[in-house]
Amino acid sequence: MSVHLPNILYDIPRNIYTAIGVPVAVGLLSGSQTRSVVDGNWYKSLAVPPGRPPRQAFPIVWTTLYVCMGYASHLAVTALEASVVPSTRSDLILGLKLYYVQLGLNVLWTPLFFGAKQTGAALIDSTLLAGTSIYMTKLLHGPTGGKSTYFLAPYCVWLTYATYLNGGIWLYNRGRKDRSV
Question: What InterPro entries does this protein map onto (predicted)?
């Protein structure tokens, strides 16, 4: 069974600059709405689980992770172009498809959590995002000689941690009546 990757999804990560630029740009656009919410009463009044980093850490960490995930997608396309083994090609193509799925889930999280203030829906998204990213990392590991894992493992760890934070916020605040406080 042949697995096809649409040309545009193949061409974006082929070029290292667009491979890195697309997730960084998507992340910046996605994160642009967070500042006003983080400065507002709703976010400041949330009970949070232990271990939340200072808010200044988030833009630095996320920008670094977007660069790393973009570079990993470039490594995957480079490996795909060099691969002739059908099972390896299938893993790479599925991994690249999951790359775009996880990018979409990543973008969706911000409007769910900060825009709609739906911490439970954001938790579901975050869980799917972490699982998809971990599976994507596993698929890309062998075909890229482990190189992509160096760039994706920190992302997977951060997503697991972010899911813990989201889960704690949902758990500690799920009985709140007024979401607009």
Answer: TspO/MBR-related_sf, TspO_MBR
